[in-house]
Amino acid sequence: MGSAFHPKDAAMPRTLVQALAEELVRASNILGDLAYDLGSDGDTLRRHMASLQAIDHVTQMQLAIADLLRAPDEITANAGRVTLEDMAVRLRGALDGTTGADAA
Q: Would you say which domain of life the source belongs to (predicted)?
């Protein structure tokens, strides 16, 4: 196992990190609204279900990243609580010094 990430290793000011977290939430809301609008049309929903699900997956990833950024002092512990398994594997790999690239 590699060394764990420590907040003191971060080069960005905490205020910028918090602002980035809020931007991720804002982008997630925009994507969520877009997916809702597109999904409200039955024909579009049927033709593009997989793409709409991918949009939902991206919004979940963005919100998980925002949560991690909001609590940098607990990032190692919180990375273990990410509920998107593929993302959690990649984050654990990054924290452990492995690639975690096997996760799709």
A: Bacteria
What tens digit of pLDDT does each residue of 12-68 get? 788 998 999 999 999 999 999 999 999 999 999 999 999 999 999 999 999 988 988
Which amino acid would we find at residue 1?
Answer: M
The C-alpha atoms of residue 83 and residue 100 are separated, in whole angstroms, by 16
Domain assignment of residue 2, yes or no:
no
Question: Of 65, 53, 1, nearest to 27 (Cα)?
Answer: 65
> What domain count does the chain have?
1
Q: Residue 64's closest CA among 26, 27, 24?
A: 24
Model pLDDT for residues 56-65, shown as the tens digit of each residue: 999 999 998 8
